[in-house]
Amino acid sequence: MHKAGFVNIVGNPNVGKSTLMNALVGERISIATFKAQTTRHRIMGIYNTDDMQIVFSDTPGVLKPNYKLQESMLNFSTSALSDADVLLYVTDVVETADKHNDFMEKVAKMDVPVLVLINKIDLTDQEKLIALVEAWRGLLPKAEIIPISALSKFNVDYVMKRVKELLPDSPPYFGKDQWTDKPARFFVTEIIREKILLYYDKEIPYSVEVVVEQFKEDEKMIRIHAVIYVERDSQKGIIIGHQGKALKKVSTEARRELERFFGKKIFLETFVKVDKDWRSSDRELRNFGYQLD
């Protein structure tokens, strides 16, 4: 008998969802930085064996939207509740159990198995962890509560074991050689955006979108032309930096990461353009691939 199903990962920003996704799938699918709101899209990572296919889905963090981009991010998270065979709700030892009550009410009403994963347990003590487990048990009485550390992979094997046990019998949804639903261009944009998140402070990373305008691959090399969009002329100047040094650093780091990711030499050209207030424009957000109501 073959098992297959969608295992959707939801939770608030900055609780380690992307790190967990990568640990479970065994591939570097989701970018993982110390900054909140890193994941903007729903990203699938596919785990295959001869008799099983697990489609893990990492979603943007659950948050109160302040502009249309964040509304789209919340839509991705909410949609993950409707097609899950197993739901992984990721929290951590800092977050309180009563955050985003309206979203949690939807989780509580789900008929599928819910695993609440309390991440970063190395940052607390046993007494506080027990109290946190009890708080989550009170909020989601039908859920299974599992303390984990995604970074050190503590209890990640147990989470995988439980997921496999809970999967329904089903034929595979994707080809057995497929490990994600996203095209190569998507991962180029994610890796460039990750380097921007790591290198720039304050609002700059959240005002940035990356578009790959050219992706040409041959046996030895991939040639990539990417545009970094910002909302203001002042942001463009910050991204480029004095004598272009900041943009050069980002491009160099991204190129190295892309070469590791694709296993080929990369020729990367990056340009910066201004697209005023793109985060609040329905038309621009749709052009960038975001999901709107």
Question: What would a concise description of this structure say?
Answer:
It contains nine helices and nine strands. The protein has helices at 17-25, 68-79, 101-108, 126-139, 156-166, 184-199, 233-240, 245-262, 282-287, and strands at 3-11, 43-49, 52-58, 86-92, 114-119, 144-147, 209-217, 221-230, 265-274. A six-stranded mixed β-sheet has the order 2-3-1-4-5-6, sandwiched between helices.
How would you sum up this structure, described in words?
This protein has 293 residues and is an alpha/beta fold. The chain folds into two domains: 3-166, Rossmann fold; 184-287, K homology (KH) domain (GMP Synthetase, Chain A, domain 3, 2-Layer Sandwich), CATH 3.30.300.20. Helices cover 35% and strands 24% of the residues. It has helices at residues 17-25, 68-79, 101-108, 126-139, 156-166, 184-199, 233-240, 245-262, 282-287; strands at 3-11, 43-49, 52-58, 86-92, 114-119, 144-147, 209-217, 221-230, 265-274. The protein has a six-stranded mixed β-sheet, sandwiched between helices. The radius of gyration is 20 Å and the shape is globular. Mean pLDDT is 86; it is low at 32-37.
Write the layout of secondary structure elements.
Blueprint: E1 3-11, H1 17-25, E2 43-49, E3 52-58, H2 68-79, E4 86-92, H3 101-108, E5 114-119, H4 126-139, E6 144-147, H5 156-166, H6 184-199, E7 209-217, E8 221-230, H7 233-240, H8 245-262, E9 265-274, H9 282-287
Parallel strand pairs: 1-3, 1-4, 4-5, 5-6, 8-9
Antiparallel strand pairs: 2-3, 7-8
Helix pairs in contact: 6-8
